[in-house]
Specification:
Length: about 375
């Protein structure tokens, strides 16, 4: 089959973007031709895929999105495919991968009535309804039971169109027999002193992932334990200026290290002593499970779709909503306890051995194949 994959922006360090790449590769391995439509692309291309740049721009994101949809629709009409798979919400999709949280829920729970009268709201609510609305025929691949419940609440999406996927952790994130050796090497490369406590923050989207909360927790722990050396490693591609200012204001600027987007996250997970991920909003949070399978204790918030795995594995601390900075501060201080971290590591690695945290992309690729074939039969092709 010939399949088209749609996303607005690709860059190598985003969780959804990494999933996108692996889905395309898995679908290619099933023997199908893959075409990719995009507005922006950073990093390596996709070998064997037909990459089609969509040359649209606009003063607002929602107008740019509309122009993208219009351009792709015209191109697909001239050069048809068997199925259209989207990684952003938009009309005309046969299959949608739900990496993003429910927009309508945020619009009603976090915004006022005036916001819901604007053009931005009309666009994003309309595009979300095109996927989840009762009249839609789009099949949905889901990664979060929490977000699924929100979509059903707002759109009454039929259960028959909702398909839950297992997580999809890359095997290179798993702690192997050489984990201790790799940890020493990674800490040495980072010039980490013996006994220094390393907090790791991973995520492109510093505001949404709660980097300000993490910096405040580091400052509190430093004040409470002034003789315990600590640092925060920040991995991700985003604007740093406001967070550097915050670190300076709290007198921890020398302890907060911005590493940018990295290809060696597997090594950093081994080098760190705890992952800190106090997100404000997170449909899944793949890095939580990457830390779990690496044996790294996790500090996170219960809004993350994958936080329930951390709780079930007893692999760290899941902070309850509503968020309180005091809870995060206490969690970071608790992570200084080596015995506690060792317990989290052992229970987390046991959970990782007994639970399917790895097959999302192969499972999803087969589902895409099956769902597109079913739609073709239903359409009488």
């Amino acid at each position: 089959m010939r399949l088209a994959f749609l996303l607005y922006k690709y860059f190598p360090y985003g969780g959804m973007q990494r999933d996108f790449r692996r889905f395309v590769e898995e679908v290619q391995q099933l023997g199908h031709e893959c075409r990719v439509y995009y507005i922006q692309w950073q990093g390596e291309g996709l070998p064997g895929a037909d990459l089609r740049h969509v040359p649209v721009s606009a003063r607002t994101n929602h107008r740019r999105n509309e122009r993208f949809s219009e351009w792709v629709s015209r191109d697909l009409e001239a050069d048809p495919v068997d199925g259209v798979i989207g990684f952003n919400k938009m009309p005309g999709l046969d299959v949608y991968y739900a990496a993003d949280s429910c927009y309508l829920d945020k619009a009603f729970s976090e915004r006022g009535w005036l916001y819901r009268r604007g053009a931005r709201y009309r666009h994003f609510s309309t595009y979300e309804a095109a996927v989840f609305g009762a009249a839609s025929r789009t099949e949905v691949l889901l990664i979060s039971e929490t977000e699924k419940a929100k979509f059903v609440q707002y759109y009454a999406t039929p259960e028959s169109r909702m398909h839950m996927l297992p997580p999809g952790i890359a095997r290179d994130r798993c702690a192997g027999e050489d984990a201790a050796i790799r940890r020493r090497a990674a800490r040495q490369s980072l010039a980490v002193d013996q006994g220094e406590h390393v907090l790791l923050f991973v995520g492109s989207g510093f505001i949404k992932k709660g980097l300000d909360r993490a910096i405040r927790a580091l400052a509190h722990a430093t004040a409470e334990q002034p003789h315990h050396a600590m640092r925060l490693l920040v991995v991700g591609q985003d604007k740093e200026r406001r967070f550097r200012r915050l670190a300076k204001k709290l007198s921890v600027e020398d302890q907060v290290h911005f590493l940018g987007g990295r290809d060696d996250v597997a090594e950093l997970l081994l080098a760190a002593d705890a992952l800190i991920h106090p997100a404000l909003d997170e449909a899944a949070g793949i890095v939580l499970l990457e830390a779990l399978v690496a044996g790294l204790p996790v500090i996170t918030t219960d809004v993350c779709g994958y936080a329930h795995h951390i709780a079930a594995a007893k692999a760290g601390m899941v902070l309850r909503s509503p968020f309180r900075q005091e809870d995060l501060n206490a969690a970071v201080l608790r992570s200084l306890d080596g015995v506690y971290r060792s317990q989290c590591r052992e229970t987390g690695l046991t959970y990782a051995r007994l639970t399917d945290l790895y097959s999302m992309h192969s499972t999803g690729a087969r589902l895409i194949e099956q769902l597109v074939q079913q739609k073709r039969r239903a359409d009488g092709e």
